[in-house]
TrEMBL record:
It is a multi-pass membrane protein. Its main location: membrane. Pfam families: Porin_4 (PF13609). This is Gram-negative porin family protein. Keywords: Cell outer membrane, Ion transport, Membrane, Porin, Signal, Transmembrane, Transmembrane beta strand, Transport. Residues 1-24 form the signal peptide. Homotrimer. It is found in: Cell outer membrane. InterPro entries: Gram-neg_bact_OMP (IPR050298), Gram_neg_porin_domain (IPR033900), Porin_dom_sf (IPR023614), Porin_Neis (IPR002299). The keyword Nucleotide-binding does not apply.
Length: 395
């Protein structure tokens, strides 16, 4: 922790040192020669139909959007301040394509809302932004390339790509194939600061370190993150995510007195969550092979549990228009295990539009309700399968 704060403090000192400030005070002659501000508007649209074989004992066909990639739009820009220094910003919002509503009710820019400075050594940004697991390890989540439902189960390792609020992030430039960074997130003191229950209390502090290396056909990334009292957008919901009926010795759902149905607990009050994630890839031309591993430690209710997950797979480039991806995951947690296989075919209509079909099958230990991702109700048994056909457009 002291090392992280020292890195961030040194970066702040560098960014706002007299030398840097002097660079920011651009002479009039240099202002005329400086490049004008550039602003880019961008986004992703994803929609399709999914059939799942078992949700609570029944099959279901549904229109599901934002699956292969979240539906989102954003704007980002850079201003040349002269002397090698630039101001940068980014705003990004996710939404539901089926009804046009915001993905996070009451929050406009739920994915990214950041401002910062950059130079040839790196970038220092403040706000809501993606963590370093997203930057350095998420690219090796091969199953998610096959199917948008196949990010690591429950996404407890945050490999699906997550933003974190109230954060300061330092990301280095590329030094001969090596990039690295550090992030610190401040505690949420605004939401019910005097409450200590799982629904009311705000999240605590968090910190994150990571690095990535790429040289020739080989690339690898690693990250470590600690979340203290994760709540809200960082909350733990083991039943809808993993199908577990017990978590750290606690029940993961309540029984509705009227209907008798299971009501999942979506915000369990744990003390901390520690994440170690690492991944690697090797490009052999038409085939790119990938592997990754994650270890997540949960502490709470006087107990400690570790979730471990390993994933292998590859992406094959058939021709200019068609790609195929196969991924396999194996997970161990609290005496249970689960295996998941994901297959995807992606047909490119153009550089910005594609059609895809994907299939997933997951089988868990006896007594664990099978569930894929967080988009479905758990199965009535230990297995769940799905088939999806969709379209994506990038602008």
């Amino acid at each position: 922790m002291k090392v992280l704060l020292s890195i961030i403090g040194s970066s702040c000192a560098l960014a706002f040192s007299p030398a840097i400030q002097a660079q920011a005070e651009i002479p009039a002659t240099e202002k005329k020669a400086a490049a004008p501000s550039s602003v880019v508007f961008y986004g992703v649209l994803d929609a399709g139909v999914t059939f799942v074989n078992n949700e609570g004992g029944h099959g279901n066909t549904k229109l599901d959007t934002g699956v292969m990639e979240p539906n989102r739009w954003g704007v980002k820009g850079v201003e040349d301040l002269g002397g090698g220094l630039s101001a940068v910003f980014q705003l990004e919002s996710s939404f539901n394509l089926d009804d046009g509503s915001l993905s996070s009710q009451g929050t406009m820019f739920d994915r990214v809302a950041m401002l910062g400075l950059s130079n040839r050594y790196g970038q220092l940004t403040i706000g809501t932004q993606y963590d370093l697991i997203n930057d350095y390890v998420t690219p090796f989540n091969i199953s998610a390339t096959a199917s948008g439902y196949a990010s690591h189960q429950g996404n407890f390792d945050r490999v699906a790509g997550n933003a974190i609020q109230r954060s300061i992030k330092l990301a280095s430039a590329d030094f001969d194939g090596l990039t690295f960074g550090a992030l610190y997130s401040f505690a949420d003191k605004s939401a019910h600061p005097d409450e200590n229950d799982s629904e009311g209390a705000g999240s605590g502090t968090a910190w994150n370190l990571g690095a990535h290396y790429a040289r020739g056909p080989f690339s690898a990334g690693v990250a470590y993150m600690r979340l203290n009292t994760p709540r809200g957008t960082q909350a733990i919901g083991p039943y809808p995510s993993l199908g577990l009926t017990q978590f750290l010795g606690q029940p993961t759902f309540a029984i509705d007195g009227g209907s008798g149905e299971r009501v999942p607990l979506k915000n369990m009050a744990i003390d901390s969550q520690k994440i170690f994630a690492i991944g690697a890839a090797y490009d052999m031309g038409k085939l790119t092979a990938m592997v990754n591993f994650a270890d997540i430690e949960f502490r709470g209710y006087g107990q400690v549990s570790d979730l471990r997950l390993i994933e292998i797979g590859g992406r094959y480039h058939f021709d200019a228009a068609l790609d195929g991806t196969l991924g396999y995951q194996r997970m161990h947690f609290e005496g249970t295990k689960a295996n998941q296989l994901s297959l995807g075919l992606d047909y490119h209509l153009s550089k910005r539009s594609d059609l895809y079909v994907s299939a997933d099958y997951r089988r868990a230990s006896h007594g664990v309700d099978g569930v894929i991702g967080n988009s479905f109700a758990p199965s009535s048994n230990s297995a769940q399968g799905l088939l999806r056909v969709g379209m994506r457009h990038v602008f």
